[in-house]
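For this section, I looked closely at a protein sequence along with its fold in token form, which I now present.
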Amino acid sequence: MAQSAGESAAQATIASLRRKMQQIESGGAPMASASSAAVLGSAPAGKGASQRKEAQRRDSVRVAPVPAWLAEHLPGGGVARGQATQISDCPAVLVDVLAHLTAQGMCVAVVDYPRLAIAAVAAAGGNVERLVLVPDSTPHTAAVLGTLVEGMDVVLFAAGGQLGKQGGQSGQGGRSSGGSVTPTFARPVEARLRKSECALLVCGKAWPQARMHVELQVCGVLGLCRGSGRIRAVEVAGRVWGKAQPPSAVRATIGAESVAGTAGTVGTADTEDTAHAHSG
């Protein structure tokens, strides 16, 4: 019964967010959520403000769960809620993180990432029914993000994911500037994010207020030999660091449980040679 109630609550949240996004698309301003209204209406001044800050510090370990190989490198064992985390645009990593989040019952929105392999998320054990996909949020990206962070557990935003459609122009009051999202774009989203229970993951362009950085890339694959085999797992390497955390080296194998007894690791350069061999 408890699980059924949780499913109903999640579906109601998603339905509410969809209505708000439809309202944004039609040109209307979205209504603040009940929880946000309660926060704003009950916010005391003076001493109350310092008490809220203290409560935020105590709750700084609020996290959304991530795979064990990444959790050991993050404070609290997950991505922080109410904050932005910069993460590399590495599909293997993103698919594994999304699969773990949705399998744990988290509701996740994916914004401006139309090339996300939904089938791969499902194959990795994820629950795709808990994904809300917004393949193209332009020209209301900031409003869409602000609405989603008020109700979702996690939002994955591919910053700059739709810039090709805009001919490289900055959108939404400065959506991109060189290799980063501008503060003008990020500030209103951050204001809603800090009051929410949502964790914002940003890949692509750099997010100016990101508290943690997860920098990973594929360094090898398992299961392939020259001219034969198939990819059964990938090796990733990189580092995790934050404003209050020194860099921590990360090296992990994603999909390792499916390659027990498989010999041989092929580097990324060898992988390209193999791919060319198959395509030829």
About this structure: The radius of gyration is 20 Å. Confidence is low (pLDDT under 50) at residues 29-45, 163-177, 258-263, 269-280.
